[in-house]
């Protein structure tokens, strides 16, 4: 499965990068395949693994912020491995055929 999620601290002012870094640190230390961009972090693994990482990432932000917003989207597709790379490669292949 692939999980794309965003953890946003609320009530801490406009500059939230330091708080978001706490969540991303949890993801990076998880050992699961992941990518972070300006809006979301995508994570790939089994259901329990992914949900545990999301829970811990939220907890890391929650430890320092009075309120936390979580946006989560999941692609639950048993048997797919390396979806983070293969899905993008498929789109790139089609773009190369223009």
UniProtKB/TrEMBL annotation:
It comes from the Bacteria. Residues 3-91 form the Thiamine-binding protein domain. Pfam families: Thiamine_BP. SUPFAM superfamilies: MTH1187/YkoF-like. Transmembrane segments: none annotated. Belongs to the UPF0045 family. NCBIfam families: MTH1187 family thiamine-binding protein. This is MTH1187 family thiamine-binding protein.
